[in-house]
Amino acid sequence: MLEAIGPWAWYGLRGIELRQTEDFRPGFVVYGRTRAPGEIFLYEHRLPEAAALRDFMRFDVLLHELGHHVLQHRSRKAGGVQRRSDHERFAEAFVARWKPIVQAALNTHASAADAHLVSSRLRHPGLETDLSPRS
Q1: How far is CA 22 from CA 18, 29, 93, 114, in A?
Q2: 8 Å CB contact between 71 and 87
Q3: d(Cα 135, Cα 125) in Å, to the nearest integer?
Q4: What is residue 135's three-state secondary structure?
Q5: DSSP-based helix, strand, coil % in the chain, nearest 5
Q6: How many Cβ atoms from other residues are within 10 Å of residue 135's Cβ?
Q7: What is the pTM of this model?
Q8: Which pLDDT score is estimated for 128?
Q9: Distance CA 133, CA 128 (A)
Q10: Across 6-135, where does the E strand assignment appear?
């Protein structure tokens, strides 16, 4: 999955761990967490539909936390600090940008038309300034 995005996004990432759900605040559901530097934790949840949960964790939670990682890495290099709302906005935009590309790359039954769509999106990304590899 990470290869579909490229090493620029996971540069400095030391690990991704699946952990048992911790006791967070009552009524507060946590699916994943990014810890600096370079650690992403995904928390288990039991749902009746295992495939739906797997896809949600891969394509939503992991990509969201990877978006936090990318922003943290960039902020550290630039010496800036981002507000929490900016982090969340960036992470959500990262998911929206990369989810269809990663899904298409992982789909072993993708048609030639899907491959062309992925290729054209990589050449003409809608959010390339904020969410694509830096030159």
Answers
A1: 12, 10, 27, 39
A2: yes
A3: 15
A4: coil
A5: 55, 10, 35
A6: 4
A7: 0.67
A8: 42
A9: 8
A10: 15-19, 32-35, 39-43
